[in-house]
Backbone:
C-alpha cells in the first residue's frame, strides 16, 4: 500500500508518465525559467539540448528542495577535450525514507526511494558552419525499496547560431534507449521527446528571450515553454519562465494559484570566477520548489 501511495504522489508532482526523474528539476537555473531556455548550457539540469556549449571550463553543484521532503543534488564538470567540450554529470533525486509495514501494519524497518543519473556528453562546432552538435548519454537508476530499474539512454541535438540576428535555433531528440534491468514484466518505456528551441537577444531590452516546444512521443502531448533572462547591472541576472503546464495544473481554487501555476523565477549573481543562483517554481496544485546552484570557473 505504501508503494502505491508513493507512485500516486509522484504522479501528481511531475504530471508525466514513465520515469518521472527524467523530467525532474535538478538545477535552480532551469527551475527559475520554468523549464525554458533549453538551448542555454545548464550541465546540472536533467534535460536540455546536448549541443549547447559553455564559454568556460567549470565545476558546478546544485541542491533543489521539493515539497514532502523530496530533494535533488547534482554535480557537473565541463572542460575542453577532443577539439570540443566534454561534460560529466552525477545527479540524484531522493524521494525520502519510508516506513516498511507488513500485512498486519507492523513496522519492519525503513526503506528509501531514489533516482540516480550518471552521464557524459560531448559538444562541438562545425568548422565551416555556425552549427553546434552534441551528444549525451549514460545510465539511469531508479529504485524503490529493493526494486531497481537500470536504463541506458542517449540524447542528441544541434543548434544553428544566427549571429547577425543574435539568435539561435536548435533541435534535439532525447531519451532514446532501453532497460538493462527492469522491476516489472512489462516493457519499461523511456520518455522519448523531440524539442525545438529558439533564443533571441532583444535589441531594445536587456533581455534574452527563450521559447521551447517539446513533443512527448509516447503521450502525443506537446508542452510550450517561454522564459527569459534580464541582464541587470553588476553582473546580476533575473530569470523567469512559465509553460502550458499552467493549464494542466490549474485547479481553479484561487486566482493567484491559476496565475502563478507552472511559473518560475530567480536571480543569478557573478563575482569573479564564481557564479551563484537561486530559483523557485510554483505548482498550480500547490507547493513551492526552491533551489540553489554554485559554479566555479577554473
Residues:
Amino acid at each position: 500500500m505504501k508503494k502505491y501511495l508513493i507512485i500516486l504522489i509522484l504522479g501528481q508532482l511531475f504530471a508525466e508518465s514513465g520515469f518521472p526523474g527524467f523530467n525532474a528539476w535538478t538545477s535552480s537555473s532551469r527551475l527559475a525559467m520554468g523549464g525554458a531556455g533549453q538551448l542555454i548550457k545548464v550541465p546540472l539540469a536533467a534535460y536540455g539540448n546536448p549541443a549547447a556549449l559553455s564559454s568556460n571550463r567549470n565545476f558546478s553543484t546544485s541542491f533543489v528542495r521539493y515539497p514532502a521532503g523530496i530533494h535533488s543534488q547534482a554535480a557537473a564538470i565541463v572542460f575542453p577535450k577532443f577539439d570540443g567540450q566534454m561534460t560529466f554529470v552525477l545527479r540524484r533525486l531522493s524521494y525520502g525514507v519510508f516506513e516498511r509495514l507488513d500485512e498486519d501494519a507492523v513496522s519492519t524497518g525503513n526503506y528509501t526511494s531514489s533516482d540516480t543519473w550518471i552521464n557524459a556528453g560531448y559538444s562541438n562546432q562545425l568548422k565551416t558552419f555556425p552549427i553546434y552538435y552534441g551528444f549525451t548519454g549514460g545510465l539511469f537508476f531508479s529504485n524503490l525499496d529493493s526494486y531497481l530499474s537500470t536504463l541506458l539512454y542517449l540524447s542528441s541535438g544541434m543548434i544553428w547560431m544566427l549571429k547577425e540576428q543574435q539568435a539561435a535555433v536548435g533541435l534535439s531528440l532525447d531519451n532514446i534507449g532501453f532497460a538493462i534491468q527492469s522491476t516489472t514484466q512489462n516493457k519499461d518505456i523511456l520518455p522519448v521527446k523531440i524539442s525545438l528551441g529558439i533564443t533571441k537577444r532583444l535589441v531594445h531590452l536587456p533581455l534574452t528571450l527563450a521559447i521551447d516546444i517539446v513533443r512527448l512521443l509516447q503521450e502525443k502531448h506537446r508542452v510550450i515553454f517561454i522564459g527569459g533572462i534580464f541582464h541587470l547591472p553588476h553582473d546580476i541576472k533575473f530569470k523567469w519562465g512559465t509553460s502550458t503546464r499552467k493549464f494542466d495544473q490549474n485547479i481553479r481554487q484561487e486566482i493567484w494559484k491559476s496565475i502563478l501555476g507552472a511559473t518560475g523565477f530567480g536571480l543569478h549573481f557573478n563575482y569573479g570566477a564564481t557564479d551563484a543562483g537561486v530559483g523557485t517554481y510554483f505548482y498550480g496544485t500547490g507547493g513551492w520548489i526552491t533551489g540553489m546552484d554554485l559554479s566555479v570557473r577554473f
The radius of gyration is 19 Å. The CA atoms of residues 41 and 54 lie 6 Å apart. The first strand starts at residue 58 and ends at 65. Confidence is low (pLDDT under 50) at residues 1-9, 11-17.
